[in-house]
């Protein structure tokens, strides 16, 4: 509702003041009414016509995982732009760097001796492809050597063999399962023994004179057929799938118990052999993009409220909860804002960052490239710790954040906020996710902290990070919460001062890597 102020003329100052005060009251009443109408409309839409499942299917099932500079990442960038445009939101892909492009192909890993079993396993990201070649070879374990000289003396024996360079695992049961069923004595003993294995293995790596990331290349140079690792995620069936560190030979992760099987066979004097065939495509350096969507502000177009979630993922699963869920939350919140918040006061920007997984590179680049946004940022809301409903918010060390959040949260329906724990002024984030990139330059990046749902072991960077782990009710909750917080931050008559609370200093700014994994391509 717009008030027609210009039709009235007053000469008496006192009368005018009284009238202005009345108008102010009227307009704040009408704002409260229209505010409630906007929030009610968003709630009704999300509860009755949520697009989250469709969006999740399109992104996670049809496009799949989104490793930086992979064709699937680009597909996802283009999908998001098209989606926004179909809703009338201005969107584009913003190039910020170039990374080594790699496309995952098939991985076939079989034990062929002493008996036949197709193993659970996959090549690590950026593992060199084998083309048409299939290699059958004996598999050996990195032995416990006295020092780097002993390692050098042993190294020629890797020629033509697959080499296992990870420790074995004592028990494949999750901690939850062990706690439920083991006697306290058994539980303590298993944990103590597992710690001993970890310590022994760290010493074994150290004695080679190399680190976990440099050892594979030394073994490759000595003529090995491939590197075999296991990174169990401490849940049934879950392995973390990260990146390869070889340039010529395949690097594969073999699932925990299949890895243990080989380990036990070798330890008892056996000579198991593996047949491995992995395909992948090297695509050279490829452009990397952030997808940016914008709804222009009408009153203060040069002040910004941002929605934020990284778009890329590791590729052992489909990146459903890291960070498919944060991504879907922001896309759905943007849909609600575009549909029901007709004339935003400030400009709304959504940032879908790439290469968060290799060190927040996409958001670092945005911060470097857009000082006009960070200088005039009212608030940025980032979500990146899984599918759970938001249960924590912090003021990131901004002195006056508490009063602002109080106003914004006041408009959030109780059903969405009753479990949220807040902390003001809180501390800035020094890393972990993209809100940190903003905190580093003293721009208010806030994290929407989710309930964890076993995130760190079940889905975080694992082969199990897939569609079935999404809790859509929690996602609806988060899309609504984000949309309402953005709406309130946009409407706020006051602008959040970028003042640090007493005793708070902003973390040192980290710069983006604009030429990622270029070193890998140098032979
Ligand atoms: Zn993440």
Keywords:
523 residues; alpha/beta; 2 domains; 15 strands; disordered N terminus; binds zinc ion
Q: Biggest sheet, open or closed, and with what strands and sense? A: 15 strands, mixed
Mean of all residue-level pLDDT scores: 94
Helical amount: 25-40%
CATH architecture of the largest domain: 3-Layer(aba) Sandwich
Strand content: 15-25%
Number of strands: 15
**What gyration radius follows from the Cα positions, in whole Å?**
27 Å
CATH superfamily of the largest domain: Zn peptidases
Structural class: alpha/beta
Distinct small molecules bound, one entry per kind: zinc ion
Oligomer: single chain
So how many helices?
16
Describe this protein's structure.
- With about 525 residues, the protein is α/β, with parallel strands linked by helices.
- The chain has two domains: about 40-100 and about 285-510, Zn peptidases (Aminopeptidase), CATH 3.40.630; about 115-270, Glucose Oxidase, domain 1 (3-Layer(bba) Sandwich).
- It has 16 helices and 15 strands.
- The protein has helices spanning about 15-50, 50-65, 70-85, 150-155, 175-180, 185-205, 215-220, 255-265, 320-340, 360-370, 370-375, 400-410, 415, 435-440, 455-460, 470-490, and strands at about 90-115, 115-120, 120-125, 135-140, 160-165, 225-230, 250-255, 275-295, 300-310, 345-355, 375-380, 390-395, 420-425, 445-450, 515.
- The protein has a 15-stranded mixed sheet that branches.
- Helix 4 (about 150-155) links the parallel strand 4 and strand 5.
- Helix 2 (about 50-65) crosses helix 9 (about 320-340).
- The chain is elongated.
- The termini are far apart.
- About 45% of the residues are buried.
- Bound molecules: zinc ion.
- Zinc ion binds near residues 310, 322 and 384.
- Zinc ion (ZN) binds near residues 310, 322 and 323.
């Amino acid at each position: 509702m717009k008030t027609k102020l210009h039709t009235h003329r007053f000469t008496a100052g006192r009368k005018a003041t009284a009238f202005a005060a009345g108008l102010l009251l009227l307009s704040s009443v009408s704002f409260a009414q229209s505010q409630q109408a906007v929030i009610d409309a968003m709630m009704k839409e999300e509860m009755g016509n949520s697009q989250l499942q469709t969006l999740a299917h399109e992104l996670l099932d049809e496009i799949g995982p989104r490793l930086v500079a992979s064709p699937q990442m680009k597909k996802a960038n283009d999908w998001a732009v098209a989606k926004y445009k179909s809703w009338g939101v201005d969107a584009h892909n913003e190039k910020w760097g170039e990374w080594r492009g790699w496309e995952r192909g098939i991985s076939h890993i079989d034990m062929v001796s002493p008996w036949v079993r197709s193993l659970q396993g996959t090549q690590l990201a950026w593992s060199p492809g084998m083309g048409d070649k299939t290699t059958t070879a004996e598999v050996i374990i990195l032995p416990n050597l006295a020092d780097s000289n002993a390692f050098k003396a042993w190294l020629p024996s890797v020629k033509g063999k697959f080499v296992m360079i990870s420790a074995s695992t004592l028990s494949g049961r999750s901690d939850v399962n062990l706690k439920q069923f083991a006697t306290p004595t058994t539980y303590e003993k298993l944990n103590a023994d597992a710690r001993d294995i970890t310590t022994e293995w760290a010493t074994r790596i150290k004695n080679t004179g190399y680190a976990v990331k440099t050892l594979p290349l030394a073994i490759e140079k000595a003529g090995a057929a491939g590197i075999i690792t296991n990174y169990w995620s401490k849940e049934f069936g879950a392995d973390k799938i990260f990146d390869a560190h070889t340039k010529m030979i395949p690097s594969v992760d073999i699932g925990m118990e299949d890895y243990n099987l080989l380990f036990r066979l070798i330890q008892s004097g056996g000579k198991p052999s593996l047949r491995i065939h992995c395909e992948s495509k090297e695509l050279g350096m490829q452009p990397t993009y952030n997808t940016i969507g914008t709804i222009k502000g009408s009153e203060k177009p040069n002040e910004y409220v941002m929605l934020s979630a990284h778009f890329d993922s590791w590729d052992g699963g489909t990146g459903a909860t890291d960070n498919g869920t944060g991504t879907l939350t922001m896309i759905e919140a943007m849909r609600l804002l575009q549909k029901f918040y007709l004339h935003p006061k400030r400009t709304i920007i959504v940032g879908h960052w790439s290469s968060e997984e290799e060190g927040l590179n996409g958001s670092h680049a945005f911060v470097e490239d857009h000082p006009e946004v960070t200088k005039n940022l009212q608030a940025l809301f980032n979500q990146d710790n899984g599918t759970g409903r938001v249960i924590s918010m912090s003021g990131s060390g901004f002195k006056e954040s508490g009063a602002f959040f109080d106003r914004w949260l006041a408009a959030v329906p109780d059903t969405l906020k009753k479990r949220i724990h807040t902390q003001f002024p809180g501390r800035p984030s020094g890393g972990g996710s993209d809100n940190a990139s903003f905190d580093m330059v003293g721009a208010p990046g806030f994290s929407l902290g989710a309930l964890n749902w076993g995130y760190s072991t079940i889905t975080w960077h694992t082969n199990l990070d897939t569609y079935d782990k999404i809790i859509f009710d929690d996602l609806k909750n988060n899309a609504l919460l984000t949309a309402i917080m953005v709406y309130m931050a946009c409407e706020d008559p006051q602008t959040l001062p970028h003042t640090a609370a007493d005793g708070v200093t902003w973390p040192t700014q980290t710069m983006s890597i604009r030429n990622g994994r270029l070193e890998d391509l140098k032979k």
